[in-house]
């Protein structure tokens, strides 16, 4: 239900009568993105007795609307799959995202091939599905992503970045906290 409300709000936000944008990062542009992040942890702290390391894959589709040149407000879905040998868990969360793309005000006579560094902030809340636990577990994350978008055409770019998050899991009787650093890549598309 929250996802439906979020999607409806996003559609209302982008369906206003603002002037047409002339470039990917201009006011009125819409951003659709999808990234995949990967992390592998090995060593005594992260391996089980069979020597299996921890593998984490995070998929983050998102959307946004540029409210000023280079400044985007939007949302994201965060799906995370963590595995350690035969054990696995998955997390599904949603939340807001704010991003700023540097260099968006410069002369953009040629967009294809341009490189735009960016910095973004996000916060998500969701639930964790454990194979061995029937209790409800709430997952919260707050983090930042820094990276670059290399424009492959005037409206599509390759997004490469590093993501840091502070994570909090709430069980019925206990809390657990931690941090994550992941590297990833994806595609960013801009509708203008």
Question: What does this protein structure show overall?
Answer:
The protein is mainly beta and 192 residues long. It has one domain: Porin, CATH 2.40.160.20. Helix content is 7%, strand content 62%. The protein is built from one helix and eight strands. It has an eight-stranded antiparallel beta barrel with strand order 1-2-3-4-5-6-7-8. A hairpin with a 2-residue loop joins strand 3 and strand 4. The radius of gyration is 18 Å and the shape is elongated. About 4% of the residues have low confidence.
What is the gist of this entry?
This protein has one helix at residues 2-14, and strands at 30-41, 54-68, 71-84, 87-101, 115-130, 137-151, 156-170, 175-191. It has 192 residues and is mainly beta.
What is the subunit arrangement here? single chain
Shape: elongated
Estimated radius of gyration: 18 Å
Strand content: over 45%
In the residues, how many domains can be counted? 1
Strand order of the largest sheet: 1-2-3-4-5-6-7-8
Essential attributes:
192 residues, mainly beta, Porin
